Amino acid sequence: MVVSFINGTTTHGVGELVELLYENATHIKFSTTDPTAGEPLFRDGVSPVTIRHAKPALMTWAVLLTTSALRSESTKMTSLETGLQLTARPAKLNPKRATPPSVSWEKIRSFNYQAMETIVTVNAPVMWHLICSYSNPSYKSSQVYAIRQRRPQNLGAIDTILGLTFIRSERSTFFPLCRGVYLFAVKAHKSLFRVESRIGRSVSFQTVYTALQTMAVARQAELQAATHLGSGRHFVIVGDNVQVFLKQRDHRIGRESRMIKGFAGTAVEMEDFNPQSFDIDELIRRQLLLERKQLSVEGIIADVNVTHLNDVMALHVLEALLDFVPCLHTTYRSQLNDAWKSHEVNQINPTRHSKVFPLATNSADEIYVQGMKDAAMDFIQKQLNITEENLGKRVIIFSGDGKTFDQLLKLKKYLIMHEGNLESLCCVVPMPELWHTLWTDLSRIVRGHWGKGYLDDPSALSRLAQLAECPTPADLKKWELSPKLRRAILNNCGH
After folding, report:
1. Rounded to the nearest 10 degrees, how much is the dihedral formed by the CA atoms of 419, 424, 429, 432?
2. Residue 256 pLDDT more than 90?
């Protein structure tokens, strides 16, 4: 009979009995001889066996039972199987016990609150229920519950539980490390790291710095393996000069404000290309033909598909009409989309996600040819680990702004007598970056069509800028790219 009652095969179960006991205990007053009368229902540090009244005894018993469940869940949350353990340093293999994985950019990018909520609800359901009930009075079950649009309760519950998990075990650093990397990315002050680490919401600044170093080393090793001869992968190096003015706030003898210069770059993996296009012998053969002498304005114009260009211009006009005329938008939007698809030429895959490898910034100054050589050799030899032995017969594309492009051409000219394709930079093909050519073309359009002094001419950009309440640029020869592009698009739609 007792076994049947406990396993729930009888008509009335244990849950019904406990609920009736607690409900009836709330209506029964404490005994006059009970010394615990009037005290809180939960008796901290007191065994429920020693409590005489049923109500505080049941409350204390339930709290202690919940506490035991929470301790079991915290142990489960800090285990290696949850995926919350992460080390900022390279992981060391230990045959005696499992070691947490090392931090990586793939692991950092995989962070999202939906995955964290799944981990919490599966491994700590009791803690999840308590925190959600505390923050959301209408919470009933993890299956269906209301969430505020502003300051959602579930995000706060996840943040609280993961923070407590990190306080429970310093090995569970996945969530606080992701938060620390975010603080580093937004240039948070170091004192904020100390405060966040103190309360268990983030790791220390040194841990974040160590993690970034570990990921940089792993990323560089991956890049060097990808650029090895025979890998079949090719990269384009995109570089540009960087400079920061270091102003001295504390003036003393020997201190002066100065400009810190350097050269930064990235390696972008190329896709959908013909491997034969990177054959240096074929490049040299074509250069020796001197076909560039035959280039003429007539040849360039002949290469332009004027019919296709006129069709695209007409589609742009229709696009502006459909955007600003609602009745046309609802009627002809599908036909216009089909027209755009029919006029696509060499369309890049819209789902492509280019792999970009950041390169370490050096202190080279591209203003000088020697500085340009130091920057190029640092990227190619030291960081990409490309030497004369493993270069083979391939070429390396190096792109940048107008100054970088010009300096690379000068450098190749000065090193033409050196031996080896790498030493002479014969393998390097300089190219102007697309955004810089766009900037140059937009500058040409602005200088040619601004129309200074013709504010009444509707064809002048100055008139349209006045109508849009856009300020006149201080220098028409060098204008910021993004505002200029936005204004050109606005003028196009206005016309």
Report:
1. -170
2. no
